[in-house]
């Protein structure tokens, strides 16, 4: 097998965590494309699902094929930037960028606000992408101070907000599983059976001993559900002939709109996702045998989060939802033993090519709601559990319990009883009517003004310590199943100074 001149000879692995190709090695085409395809398969569902959900919930059906194409296209661009590192932008690691589930609830809330004013589909999309474009600069600015703002955005704040994200989205997943919004036969047995088939398949594959099956559980479940729906006559390909052959990326195709009321909750989430990205990049650095302390590490974290913000701005410009790093691809690195950032160029190329063909989005749009709901119900539940994991790592002593209890109570309260804000001015009603917004503000303010428990040992806030907080920001999205318990044990062992070879 021939390799480029920069290629180092693959090392014989001596353990599960050994790498065949290091970060700056250049694998030959065959191993590089094979590893890239595994990354694409592991992340494909995560990239397209938020777009499918937003398009379905807001009634944007005619635009979904193009929006899915753009989601894949900008994921490719973002992955290239992260791997290549262009100037100060990009971590220089093999980390895949994709559409973030973290923004889903606030995007839907913003879309319903605009739709409630009688806006057309194009006006809804123009406003959503305009808001996301502007809000991305919040993360761009935050990236330069991520090690200074831990006093404000602490694990108890992050965990509370992520938990609220998942809990507020579960209704969306359950409604889809039962047939979808407006279905005349909502809850019919054939809907529940189809959604249950997908859900059960994902559960069974996630308990398999093969890591390949675990990584592919969601995409296999969706494929099986889609196939069953097709064979039972619930998928109609009659309109596929009308789908254009090529999707041409067009900046701000739907125009540029803005709404301050819808902007606030989205901007809040842009303060949270950088911490998740920092955790993902830390895990990636460990798996790739890179330092997790010192100036090189901090440069990678800042540059990676900066790339997240810049890629989100580019995504909005090309008519897609905000971007973030995908944690499940860290599991693929462990599986393949390939940490070379040059594989990121192959991943980027595959995603860009997929994004140029709208037939991909058109086929996915035909996926019955119960099929999608069976998968997203697990995904959204996993988001909520990830928040609980962060809170448990933060420590649920009296002060933190008070912060979490009040914030969750307010967030879930306005979601369950929206009329509680009926006598407030429309501006405040729309802002605090989002469970994420009111929960986030509550958690941040309480965390700032409630005095610390004097019995707890104070932490040194002078320097960002990735090791102390890795497990509080790692694995915080619905694609977390890709890194299993054994993987986390490996990370824990790598973080333990006593376990490291001298």
From TrEMBL:
Pfam families to which the protein is assigned, alphabetical: Xan_ur_permease (PF00860)
Keyword entries, A-Z: Cell membrane, Membrane, Transmembrane, Transmembrane helix, Transport
GO molecular function annotations of the record: xanthine transmembrane transporter activity
Coiled-coil regions listed in the entry: none
Topology of this chain in the membrane: Multi-pass membrane protein
Listed InterPro entries: NCS2, UacT-like, Xan_ur_permease
Cellular compartment(s): Cell membrane
Transmembrane portions of the chain: 40-58, 64-81, 93-112, 124-145, 152-174, 186-205, 212-232, 252-272, 343-364, 370-388, 400-418, 430-450
Family statement: Belongs to the nucleobase:cation symporter-2 (NCS2) (TC 2.A.40) family.
NCBIfam families: ncs2 (TIGR00801), NCS2_1 (NF037981), pbuX (TIGR03173)
Protein's name in the database: Xanthine permease XanP
Organism of derivation: Ectopseudomonas chengduensis
Organism phylogeny: Bacteria, Pseudomonadati, Pseudomonadota, Gammaproteobacteria, Pseudomonadales
